[in-house]
Design goal:
The complex is a heterodimer of chains A (564) and B (186). Helix content of chain A is 37%, strand content 15%. With 564 residues, chain A is α/β, with parallel strands linked by helices. Chain A has 3 domains: 161 residues, Rossmann fold (3-Layer(aba) Sandwich); 166 residues, TPP-binding domain (Rossmann fold); 174 residues, Thiamin diphosphate (ThDP)-binding fold, Pyr/PP domains (Rossmann fold). In chain B, strands 5, 6, 7, 8 and 9 form a 5-stranded antiparallel beta sheet that branches. In chain B, strands 2-3-1-4 form a 4-stranded antiparallel beta sheet, covered by helices on one side. The chains are: A alpha/beta (564), B alpha+beta (186). At the A-B interface, helix 9 of A face helix 1 and helix 2 of B.
Chain lengths: 564, 186
């Protein structure tokens, strides 16, 4: 059969239900195959939207997502989502069209060396040189993307090869040839035992949980370990919901805009158990001053994360779910008394009482952004799938939405990609058709991929987009205020005499319902009504313009020196 | 440590971290990689973006057409060697990595020296030095000699030092390749 028909069969064999993409010259053969394949295809309006939608689908469902683009600009438009997926370990198979083999290397029309361009941004990639290799490459791509530490992969297929006839039968077994790829899942038994003993000896422990726990589906084990041990728990931006908030053992998120309690706990801990987290600079602040009294147990499926930023006193390479499953009975067998933690909890409760997440509310009807996030939480019942863009609104949401389950908070953590939120919400809605999907965004971020409003309408995806609208690139403005002597440079998006875009007209233009909300008193009810409105809704929430996101670890400062 | 069933209390103070130490010496990494297009770019790109400086790098075929051997030398004083090997292991086309122990390894490189010498006593002197270093003359003209020599980097640097006063026109070195001593495969 044609190689492109074989691709469709391979996708079906991998259980693919939906593909996000955009056609063009070099992937015309693949799009021809879609006509008869019976696989849902979501036509986006820009390849970056397709890539982020695939990420939103993968992050919310845990499945490997698929995104298609054509050669040249189609492929280069995918670079941001590919890098985004790399930073946040999101399993996406990107399949790009490429120019004909006889044109390769000649600067042909719409030729771009996408393999070369994306090499630092992929877990692995394949350039097809023989059409007979295509089925194997597709299956290998799914295996590499979805196993071990998940990540993006690229398969680049020259258009003439995709049209070729290849020997392939439907349902054919395709052996993989990946001798250099053998992720380890189980964890070394001796190290696990050693970790259990260290945990039993700890007097000021912290469970520090990262995105690896989400990827492993380890929420039950993390919760069980917390309950068995009585340890305090903090989850990174990538892992919110793995441990439910609020909860007596929940410290809040750590890091630059985390809670003081979480940061002070790490600062004074004698043992930090990192479960699938990577000690990113937004967590540690000044690395030299990070957790000066702590020993580290570092559990990660990627050995290269262990010892990369902080020393690992007990390294465990493995899958968080499997390793914790073995570690919990080991820990229980040691009979450690929870009473040894009494002093530690007293200290933590002291911080919690002294430094709650707070803000000064307005005296009139004006809406503070923090109030808006709490209102979204209340109006949505606290169990929506929430995506966000990047900036102040993202941090306010992470701090205040109180996620209860993993895969309900979907944002761009590592790369910090503005424009992620709307397409990610579309992907999440495709993967979770019965869920309320809310995109919390800013008036800056939303304009980076607002063209995807058309996709929502055409595909019937009833996402609710809430713009925390302060007329500024708020986070940059905040940094200019705090660290650049309030010399505001190109952060003001709002001309009061000629405001663009007219959000209500924009909503109307795309066939969305538009709502503008300005009153604190009715905000919860108004949001509830907006979320209950069928179809996609754009909610423009006008908030106080110059509110800062606090608390904050200033760049390069230590966690104990948080401000605000 | 940690025998099954032990209830002995572990002392957190006694725990030592091992990772990410700078070793302070030269490391010769011997990699077996799949012979696929782009493999070398992946390896070189990894070194570049992680800020790992490469001292030498050589690539060649092996006895198996599907595999190539890459030998990389890096300075363990400036580069965290465990991070280098762990990151290299993440490359799907890298099959095997060995950080070769210096005293268990035979490492050699090849160098070509072009020396400017007119006929006369200086030419004889260069030939004499060449013999001492067990070099071979592989090209000769009235104005120049090309010397081929193999050996350790130290030996090649010593020869370079000796030839400099005679008018070294140019020099080329392959970078080291290395093989483990004894019966076992590298």
């Amino acid at each position: 059969m044609r190689a492109v028909d074989a691709i469709m069969e391979c996708l079906k064999a991998e259980g693919v239900e939906v593909v996000f993409g955009y056609p063009g010259g070099a992937n015309l053969p693949t799009y021809d195959a879609f006509v008869d394949a019976g696989i849902r295809h979501v036509l986006v309006r820009h390849e970056a939207g397709g890539g982020h939608a695939a990420e939103g689908y993968a992050k919310s469902t845990g499945k490997v997502a698929v995104c298609l683009g054509t050669s040249g600009p189609g492929a280069t438009n995918l670079v941001t989502p590919i890098m985004d997926a790399m930073m946040d370990s999101v399993p996406v198979v990107f399949i790009t069209g490429q120019v004909r083999t006889d044109l390769l290397g000649t600067d042909g029309f719409q030729e771009a060396d996408i393999l070369g361009i994306t090499m630092p941004a992929v877990k692995h990639s394949w350039m097809i040189t023989d059409p007979a290799d295509i089925p194997q490459a597709i299956h290998e791509a799914f295996h590499v993307a979805g196993s071990g530490r998940p990540g993006p992969v690229v398969v680049d297929i020259p258009t003439d090869l995709s049209k070729a006839d290849i020997p392939y039968e439907i349902g054919q077994e395709v052996p993989l040839d990946l001798p250099g790829y053998q992720p380890k899942f189980e964890g070394n038994a001796k190290q696990i035992r050693q970790a259990a003993r260290a945990l039993a000896a700890a007097k000021r422990p912290v469970l520090y949980v990262g995105g690896g726990a989400v990827a492993a589906g380890a929420q039950d084990e993390v919760r069980e370990l917390a309950h068995v041990s009585g340890f305090p728990v903090t989850c990174t931006l990538m892992a919110l919901g793995v441990y439910p908030a609020p909860d007596p053992q929940w410290l809040g998120m750590p890091g630059m805009h985390g809670t003081r309690t979480a940061n002070y706990s790490m600062d004074e801990a004698d043992l930090i158990f990192s479960i699938g987290a990577r000690f990113d600079d937004r967590i540690t602040g000044n690395l030299a001053e990070f957790a000066p009294n702590a020993k580290f147990i570092h559990l990660d499926i990627d050995p290269a994360e262990i010892g990369k930023n902080v020393p690992a006193h007990i390294p465990i390479v493995g899958d968080a779910k499997q390793v914790l499953g073995k570690l919990i009975p080991e820990y229980e067998s040691l009979g450690a008394e929870k009473a040894r933690l009494d002093d530690w909890w007293e200290k933590i409760h002291g911080w919690q009482a002294k430094y709650p997440l707070t803000y000064e509310d307005t005296k009139d009807s004006e809406i503070k952004p923090q109030f808006a996030i709490k209102a979204i939480w209340e109006a949505s019942g606290g169990d929506a799938i929430v995506t966000s863009d990047v900036g102040q609104h993202q941090m306010w949401t992470a701090q205040r939405y109180d996620f209860k389950e993993p895969r309900t908070w979907i944002n761009s953590g590592g790369l910090g990609t503005m424009g992620f939120g709307l397409p990610a919400a579309l992907g999440a809605q495709v993967g979770n058709p019965d869920s309320l999907v809310i995109c919390v965004t800013g008036d800056g971020s939303i304009q980076m991929n607002s063209q995807e409003m058309a996709t929502a309408t055409q595909e019937g995806l009833p996402v609710k987009v809430v713009i925390i609208n302060n007329g500024y690139l708020g986070m940059v403005r905040q940094w200019q205020e705090l660290f650049w002597e309030k010399r505001y440079s190109h952060v003001d998006l709002r001309d009061p005499d000629n405001e663009v875009p007219n959000w209500m007209k924009l909503a109307d233009a795309y066939g969305w319902t538009g709502v503008r909300l300005e009153k604190k008193e009715t905000l919860v009810d108004d949001l509830r009504a907006a979320f209950a409105t069928p179809g996609p809704v754009l909610v423009d929430v006008r908030v106080v313009r110059e509110e800062n996101t606090y608390p904050m670890i200033a760049p390069g400062a230590a966690a104990r020196d948080m401000v605000g | 440590m940690g025998d099954p069933g032990t209830k002995e209390v572990l002392s957190l103070e006694a725990l030592q971290a091992s990772a990410s130490l700078r070793t302070g010496r030269k490391h010769v990494l011997s990699l077996v990689v799949q012979n696929r297009p782009g493999v070398l770019v992946r390896i070189a790109g990894l070194f570049a973006r992680r800020g790992f400086n490469i001292n030498t790098l050589s690539v060649g075929p092996t006895d198996d057409d599907n595999k190539s051997r890459v030998t990389v030398t890096v300075d363990g004083a400036t580069v965290p060697i465990d991070q280098v090997t762990k990151q290299l292991h993440k490359l799907v086309n890298v099959l095997k990595i060995r950080d070769l122990e210096p005293d268990q390894t035979v490492a050699r490189e090849l160098a070509l020296f072009k020396v400017g010498v007119e006929n006369g006593p200086r030419r004889a002197e260069v030939l004499q030095i060449c013999n001492i270093f067990r070099g071979k003359i592989v090209d000769i003209t009235k104005q120049s000699l090309v010397i081929e020599v193999t050996g350790t980097p130290e030996k090649i640097e010593a020869l370079e030092e000796m030839l400099l006063p005679f008018g070294l026109i140019e020099m080329m070195r392959t970078g080291e390749i290395a093989i483990s001593r004894g019966r076992d495969e590298t």
